[in-house]
Amino acid sequence: MPKFASNEGMIETFLNRVAPRIYNLSGKSTLTDIFISPAEQAAQTEFDKLRSIEAELNKRQEAVRVQLAAATREKLRVIAADATSKQILIYYDYARRQDDAALYYLHKIIETIENKFGGEAEGIRAVGKTTEWKSVKRLANESYRDARHAPKPGDMIKKWTDAELKTCFENVAVIVIAYFATLFSSTPRNSTA
Known about the structure:
single chain; 8 helices
């Protein structure tokens, strides 16, 4: 076992601690076993205290685990009840499945949030992610990307890079998470990046 430096240590621990518990050999047989020194008493007191704390922590941990599960269910319920969130999740799923059209769907997520709040400025004000918002829109709107607009005559059509697409996904995730937060808060977010 990794905890033990040698087999002898493991065997000694097993014989002196585990076996007596299994076979109920806990009875003390010698006078030195019966005598409890002050250091043993202090250590036993501290050990009992820590076990009591551990039991209380385990009890509290279980209560918090139940609270976390309830909070997770509530989060999913609130998000599922919001029409904008439903559309965002559909577009995000499409973007993840279709590399060749991912940027189109990521931009649609931004537009969906804009529509919810009544425009770009209001959307940015609501979610507070200006830098990420502008980055996604800039990448999607550059005409040579051909993601949303047909190129002008003579424009070079260039495919976005994997790094740009990865950054776009990351930025959209930040924006969507900030949007989800608006569903749980009555205070609007500031418009800083």
